[in-house]
Amino acid sequence: MSQARTNARKAAVQALYQWQMAGQDLSEIERQFLEEERLKDAQKSYFVELFYGVPKNLEAIDQALSEFVDRPVDTIDPVERAILRIGVYELLYRLNMPYRVVLNEGINLAKDFGADGSHKYINGILDKVAQQKRAVEIKAKGAR
């Protein structure tokens, strides 16, 4: 997995966090990120896909999440919520990306941005979503 794509995910977590908290216009947040050169080492096209793809598919993403979280999605810590939404987006809409990569990236994002131990929570939820949404892929790989 390329570092540029990992950096795109990191920027997307921050941008989605800002969107969730302030409710600002997406294009305004994207403009700020570009102006502040926060995407300098990131794969910009992937940042854009995640940053616009999550809100565009929010209903399906939150529906998938709500089956496995222990509380309403809107009450999950905003950083963890942004990470989970990116992970579920990738599990649902980036079928060419191995589910293990999605899980590992989510864990690493939680270690970078989340509270202590939040990576375990992120891993648990994303793993359950993957078991349901990527069952064919997981079975084919003989995982579990």
Distance between the termini: 23 Å
Name the CATH architecture. Answer: Orthogonal Bundle
Number of strands: 0
Proportion of residues in β-strands: under 5%
Helix-strand category = mainly alpha
H/E element string?
A: HHHHHHHH
CATH class: Mainly Alpha
Percent of residues in helices = over 70%
Shape: globular
CATH topology: N-utilizing Substance Protein B Homolog, Chain A
Brief descriptors of the model:
single chain, 144 residues, mainly alpha, N-utilizing Substance Protein B Homolog, Chain A, 8 helices, 74% helix
Protein model, in words:
By secondary structure, the chain is an all-alpha fold. It has a single domain (3-141), classed as N-utilizing Substance Protein B Homolog, Chain A (Orthogonal Bundle). Helices cover 74% and strands 0% of the residues. 35% of the residues are buried. The mean pLDDT is 94.
Task: Summarize the topology.
Blueprint: H1 3-22, H2 26-35, H3 44-56, H4 58-66, H5 78-93, H6 99-113, H7 118-133, H8 135-141
Helix pairs in contact: 1-2, 1-3, 1-5, 3-5, 4-5, 5-6, 5-7, 6-7
In a few lines, what is going on in this structure?
The chain has 144 residues and is an all-alpha fold.
